[in-house]
Amino acid sequence: DLASQVLGFILLVPAQQSFLRLVFAQLVSLFMLIVVLTAKPYARVDDDSTSVAVQAMLVCIFIGAALVKLWEDMDELMGSDLASQVLGFSSTDQIFSVMLALSLMIVASIMINNFYRVMMSLRSHALRILATGRPPVIEFGQQLSEQNLRVHKRFHLFCSYCWSSGQDQVITIKRQLRLLLPSAQIFLDVDDLDDISHLEEYVNASALVMSFLSL
Predict the structure, then answer these.
(1) Buried b vs exposed e over 117-140: b needs ≥16 C-beta within 10 Å?
(2) Percent of the chain clearing pLDDT 90 (strictly above)
(3) In terms of C-beta density within 10 A (0-12 exposed, 13-18 middle, 19 or more buried), how is residue 22 classed?
(4) Whole-number CA gyration radius for the chain
(5) Who's near 60: CB < 8 A, 6+ residues apart?
(6) What is the average pLDDT value for the chain, to the nearest integer?
C-alpha cells in the first residue's frame, strides 16, 4: 500500500518528462527494496523473501523501461548506431529480452527458495497447523500491567534456572522448543542477556516465565 501511494507521486511529474518519471520510479522502488530488506515486515521468512524478490523485479522493470526510453530518444536524435554504441544494446527488443530474462530468473529464485523451505519444514519436527500444514506464527497479544499500562513484550518465554546445576538442561529445553515452534522468542541469559542490571526489564518484556528447578 505504501509503495503504491509513493509511486502515485510519479504522476505529479509532467508527462512530457517521461524519462524523469522512470528515474523517479527507479529511486522509489530501490528505496522500498532497501526498506523490505532491513525491516523484514512479515512474520514468515518466505513472505519476506518473496517481497524482496518482487521489489527487485520492479527495480529491473523500471531500469529496463528507462533504457528503452533512452535508446529510442538517442535513436531519434543521433541514430541507432550511436545509441547501440553508447548503451550496448542493438535494439529495444534486446533490452526487453535481457530484462525479461532477469525477471524470469527472479521468479525462478522465488520458486526454488520457497520449495526448499517447504522441503526443510517437512523434514523438521516443528508443530504444524492441521488446516495449513505450516508452523504456527506466535504473536504477542495486548497485555496490561498492574498500572493498566500497555507492556511491550519481546519474548514469549523467559527461562529462569540455577546457573550451577541447570544451565545445560535449560539450553536443551530452549533448543527443543525452537525446533517445535520456530517463531517462538525465548529468552536465555547466555544468548540474550547484555547487562545483568537489566534483568528485570527482560522479565517484564516476557509473556511467560519458566522456572527450572534443579539440585
Answers:
(1) eeeeeeeeebeeeeeeeebeeeee
(2) 6
(3) buried
(4) 26
(5) 99, 102, 103, 106
(6) 79
Contacts within 8 Å (CB) and 24+ apart, 15-20 = 18/69, 19/66, 19/69, 19/70, 19/73
3-state SS assignment for residue 160:
strand
Residue carrying the nine cell digits 528503452: 68
Q: Which of 3, 25, 31 is nearest to 12 (CA)?
A: 25
- What pLDDT digit, counting tens, does each position of 65-104 carry? 888 888 888 888 888 888 888 888 888 889 889 988 988 8
Spatial separation of the C-alpha atoms in residues 198 and 161, rounded to whole Å: 17
What is Dmax (Cα atoms) for the chain? 86
Residues 23-56 as b/e (b if ≥16 CB within 10 A, e otherwise) read bbbbebbbebbeebeeeeeeeeebebbbbbbbbb
pTM listed for this prediction: 0.53
Contact in structure between 127 and 133 (CB atoms under 8 Å): no
**pLDDT value at position 148?**
42
The residue written with cell numbers 538517442 in the block is 74
Place of cell 523517479: 24
Instruction: Provide the 10 A C-beta neighbour count for residue 67.
Output: 20
Q: Give residue 73's Cα distance to chain centre.
A: 37
Q: Can you tell me the distance from the alpha carbon of 1 to that of 59, in angstroms, rounded to the nearest whole number?
A: 17
Rounded to 5 degrees, φ, ψ at 141 are: -80, 170
